Amino acid sequence: MALFSPKKHFHSIYDITPEFLHTVGVRALVLDIDNTLVTYQTPRPTDKVVEWINLMRSHGVGVTIASNNDRARVEEFCRGLDVFFTYKSGKPGSKCIKLSCKRWGILPREVAVVGDQIFTDVLCANLGGAVSYLVDSLGGRENAFIKFKRLLEKPIIRSYKKHHPDEFSEDKNEA
Ligand SMILES: [Mg+2]
Q1: What is the pTM of this model?
Q2: Whose CB has fewer CB within 10 Å in the chain, the N or C terminal residue?
Q3: For residues 44 and 134, what is the distance between their CA atoms, to the nearest angstrom?
Q4: In angstroms, rounded to a whole number, what is the distance separating the alpha carbons of residues 164 and 171?
Q5: Over the stretch 59-81, which tens digit does the pLDDT of each residue have?
């Protein structure tokens, strides 16, 4: 189960701050695009996403965009962002973590993979020796395979929530 457990859960990327990363020793982020930064249907980053990425970089946090989506999607998304990116990243394979380590001259444990899927993003981080941050899916339309994976994610998230209440952000409605 540990391979499927995120180190920490956030409601959204905006809850991740440079100050927090600094305190836990994370020096670079590997960011998923689809349903993490924007929905599948959003071709370009929103102003808010750009602002958040720039905030990270202005605090010396390295940013890599790593998507399993195709070249056209990722290039269009990253155009103008001046950001290091990889497409068809093969997550949960850990190639994107290795690239990030090389790029920033850091160790896997100083990299956090941020994403919305347990079997892709969280597993990638855990297999690659990086830190994994799970965010809530932005809820855009998902294909049948992802919907299937969502069903499998549910008991894992429930168990994680039960065993690691301090690392899990409570439902906004309950707060
Ligand atoms: Mg995703």
Answers
A1: 0.92
A2: C
A3: 22
A4: 15
A5: 999 999 999 999 999 999 999 89
**Which residues 6+ apart lie within 8 Å of 45 measured at CB?**
37, 38, 53, 77, 81
Strand ranges in the chain using DSSP code E only, listed in sequence order: 8-10, 28-31, 62-66, 84-86, 111-115, 131-135
What is the whole-number distance in angstroms between the Cα of residue 173 and the centre of ligand 1? 24
**Of the candidates 160, 118, 122, the residue with the CA atom closest to the CA atom of residue 30:** 122
3-state secondary structure of 78: helix
Distance 136 CA to ligand 1 centre (A): 10
Class of domain 2-167 as given by CATH: alpha beta
Domain segments of the chain as ranges: 2-167
Q: What is the pLDDT of residues 13-62, one digit of tens each?
A: 999 999 999 999 999 999 999 999 999 999 999 999 999 999 999 999 99
Q: Is the dihedral of CA 42, 44, 47, 48 positive or negative?
A: positive
